[in-house]
Write a structure and sequence with these properties.
114 residues, seven-stranded mixed β-sheet
Length: 114
């Protein structure tokens, strides 16, 4: 089992930045990928970004390329999502995810509004 705990959400103005963190605990040696998804009100959960845990390769959805950066600290079993140039359409609950096993965190709210 892997447990995931997100932090770092909040309210930010358009054009601002936020940094999300997700700390993994439990069977962290089993993690192959970690990533972020988001779910806006009335919409399905969508993929945002992922990182290969050991190799560090990254992949992003087109809508966040050039604005968001995913990274990880292997020693701390933590993955980060640096979000810059935020837009109102980035407003959502952001969920941390780990594979294999399909583990999810509890989610953290990000609201982009003036």
């Amino acid at each position: 089992q892997v447990q995931l705990a997100e932090s770092g959400g909040g309210l930010v103005q358009p054009g601002g930045s936020l940094r999300l963190s997700c700390a993994a605990s439990g069977r962290t040696d089993s993690i192959y990928y970690m990533g972020w998804f988001r779910q806006a009100p009335g919409k399905e959960r969508e993929f945002v970004a992922r990182i290969h845990w050991s190799g560090g390769s990254t992949y992003y959805v087109d809508s966040v390329k050039g604005r968001f950066t995913i990274s990880r600290d292997i020693a701390e079993n933590t993955v980060f999502l640096q979000m810059n140039s935020l837009k109102p359409e980035d407003t959502a609950v952001y969920y941390c995810h780990a594979d294999p096993g399909g583990y999810w965190g509890q989610g953290t709210q990000v609201t982009v509004s003036s």
